[in-house]
């Protein structure tokens, strides 16, 4: 009997993408093969997201779409965050799904597939789920960038966030394990490694690594042929002078600061159990720009948190005008079951939340476009990620994969590092020619 073929669709954040790559490597090692489409697969799998209501809705929609597309006799498995948080509910609501396995049951994936397909794969010793998710083996994606997860879970008490309920407490990986994976990624053709975690800047607190993230960055600084490190998600409580100075002085770390600020109103931030306010946020932004004038700054903000007023929305808009961040993402507040914020008074009507979100997004979009226009004529270095309709598309230090704008270049191939001069700015994207 030929090995059954699998199809895996991944939803959610970069951390979920890393999990899918680890699962893919494990199942390939067990002898399974990968289909060219869900229509031809023996088993379709969905790695789900459960961060907010919209993510859960997208997960359910994707599961049902794959059910419609799969061929007769094929099976379906749901994994990931929604399976972890709402496993029983998913099984009850979607009886057509053959198996629902949360993060802590990834060690059962091979046996589950074996039972569904009646095929006996390569004999493998059962491994704990965290061993699978922390393994250094992963398939080559063909992209010149890749995500490297350095820790799992989060210890922060943010009142709006269900991540600790889904992923548990923080569990950092050992520096040598991370360096080994970075080395393997470079060997597979990755030029830019993007470090991710639920609370990246708190890395190492749980494993007696007092040097934390700064020491890890220094440890990775001489990985041969690694061209760029990028950090995503820095909680402001964890950002100190040593981290900033290490990032700025590193020969590899991109001058890109992804600050998780969430709002500018002090009362709202305290209700979220978050630090800072607009004044302190601006002080942090100014400090970073003093250390690195060419740095790109991004942040994310929650709109419509319980009790948010029109004046607090105006306060956030004023902060955006003063901070002039390069990029910002805005997320509608979602009352997540089990979180303290879901029980708070002052829940903002959904229609009003979306009106506020559109307003704030428009404020930031104008700022981003003005900053992009100011770059015309400047020189930079761009990593080409792919070719779209015959045009090479890449990113400078200012742009993280998949969440920021891109640079369209006149010539080059994926994986090339190209010196360019910017010639135009169109919306959130830039155009450039080889310098």
Query: Helix proportion of residues, in percent?
Result: 25-40%
Q: Assign the CATH superfamily of the largest domain.
A: tm_1862 like domain
Strand runs, count:
18
Whole-number count of domains: 3
Number of separate helices: 14
The low-pLDDT segments are none
Would you kindly provide a written description of the structure presented here, covering whatever features stand out?
With 435 residues, the chain is α/β, with parallel strands linked by helices. Helices cover 36% and strands 22% of the residues. It has 3 domains: 5-130, Methylthiotransferase, N-terminal domain (Rossmann fold), CATH 3.40.50; 135-373, tm_1862 like domain (pyruvate-formate lyase- activating enzyme, Alpha-Beta Horseshoe); 379-434, Nucleic acid-binding proteins (OB fold (Dihydrolipoamide Acetyltransferase, E2P)). It has 14 helices and 18 strands. It has a 5-stranded parallel beta sheet with strand order 2-1-3-4-5, sandwiched between helices. Strand 14 (379-388) and strand 15 form a beta hairpin. The relative contact order is 0.08.
